[in-house]
Every structure is written in structure tokens, then in C-alpha cells.
Design a protein that fits this description.
mainly alpha; 2 domains; 4 helices; binds zinc ion; plasmid
Length: 92
């Protein structure tokens, strides 16, 4: 049991170190002398990568309660499906 907790601690430390390295330029950090990545902000960014969840950045179904509120990924999917359908219906 002790070995399992040691390895999970090591795994947690590995992932936090990995995320600190990967996200060191998030939130405008590292872009200038006044935005040097500090330990406090790097610690926050490993658990909350998104800087905000406003109506423009957040989930559209949360803020725009209509059936047409689709994510960009869903819009692309339906656009591709529509193009496939239209491409197949046209005689070639
Ligand atoms: Zn936003």
C-alpha cells in the first residue's frame, strides 16, 4: 500500500511539473519582463487552464439557451455532414 501511495505521489508530481512546463506561456506569462511566470500563477494554471468562462469563451449552451447554440467543433461536424450529403445527391 505504501508503494502505491508513493507512486501516485510521484505521478501527481510528474503531471504537475509537466503541466507547469506546458502552460508556462498561458495567461500572457512569459511575454515580457513584467509577465515573468511566477510559482503562484504556475500553480494556479495547472488546475485551471482557462483564464475566463465568459459568454464568449465558455460553453454556448450555458449562456445561449437555444437549440442552435453549438460549439465550434459541432458546427464543423454538421457542416462536413451537410457537404457530404450535398456532394452525394448531386449527379456526377
Ligand atoms: Zn472569455
Amino acid at each position: 500500500m505504501k508503494q502505491a501511495s508513493d507512486s501516485s505521489r510521484a505521478l501527481r508530481r510528474h503531471h504537475s511539473c509537466r503541466l507547469k512546463k506546458a502552460r508556462r506561456l498561458y495567461w500572457g506569462m512569459g511575454t515580457g519582463v513584467e509577465n515573468v511566470p511566477d510559482d503562484r500563477r504556475l500553480g494556479i494554471v495547472i488546475s485551471t487552464a482557462a483564464l475566463c468562462s465568459c459568454h464568449m469563451c465558455g460553453n454556448p449552451r450555458r449562456y445561449w439557451k437555444t437549440k442552435d447554440a453549438l460549439t465550434v467543433q459541432e458546427q464543423r461536424l454538421f457542416q462536413d455532414l451537410l457537404q457530404d450529403i450535398e456532394g452525394k445527391s448531386q449527379p456526377s
